[in-house]
Design goal:
Keywords: Membrane, Transmembrane, Transmembrane helix. The chain crosses the membrane at residues 15-38, 50-72, 128-149, 155-180, 200-224, 236-259. By secondary structure, this protein is mainly α. Helices cover 79% and strands 2% of the residues. The protein is built from 12 helices and 2 strands, in the order ααααααααααβαβα. The protein has helices at residues 3-43, 50-53, 56-80, 85-117, 120-137, 139-145, 150-185, 196-223, 232-262, 266-270, 275-281, 297-301, and strands at residues 272-274, 294-296. α6 (139-145) runs antiparallel to α7 (150-185). The longest helix is centred in the N-terminal third of the chain and has 41 residues, at 3-43.
Amino acid sequence: MGNSTFIYEYRHGLAYFEFSLAGVAACLLVFTIVFTLMKEIPARSQSYNLATMFSPSNTLIILLLICVQGYLVSDANYHINGRDTSWNKAETFFMACNQTFYAHYSWLRGKEVFKMQTSTRTYRTLKYVLQILPALSLGPFIVLLISMTREQTSLAYLLTGASSGLATIILDVFYCFSFLRQIFNMVDNTISVPVSYRTIANYGLGASICALLLVLTFVCNVLLVDDESPSQNALLAYAISNGLFGTLLVLNGIILVMMKVALIKPAFLHGTTTAANIRKFLDTTEKLAAPEIQVSNRTLLSKL
């Protein structure tokens, strides 16, 4: 088999695999929308209105899944169409948006856990990193839109990508640490927290680990870049790395949707916890004027 034939078959094979993953992501998106309308809203006894249907958590998870599909379709077309730069720009844009939506969705779901497991200073610092993440994530995409020499573009793309990647790693490590600490701390029955926090911590930890693996495989993709005249071994390594990256993207979406499904269990929606013990666990100096006040998980979940 000639090298040109191998390159053709490799690129089309990789593209078809990514199209298949995009199909899985599309099914996941449809499921999420149907589940939200038919199951979640009734289970929470909420009204059907725009504020409910397009709540921050619903909007973020839907946009995230759309971006997963957009990236996979763009990358597949990039390989089929002779590495067209327009498709490269599209996949870079969708990847930046996916990175941002994931980080914000995880923060929205886990912020109450983060407050309990970290100091106020750490929480505020990481929240600032989260706020600047969209600008950092869009850096590589903006570089591709600016007319520069190839060397300048490569350098600027590398620097902006490194900045974005560093911010993502910092947030993901923070998520992993907080969720893991929450899981261990819930073994102590003297601490009263909503039972839903274990579900958030379990799925959040899985999604965070998946996100860290995504960064690792992305770095591998950069190192194993599809050159003009690559060897067959290099192409095979790149195909495996790129295929794994797409698989992890879809898996990350699946984990987040599974968390969404798990959080409508009746025990989570109607259980109770003690506000006074939560205050004590947070090591606040404020004293409660009244005895222990029962707070429903429904109220706490509405903040997530």
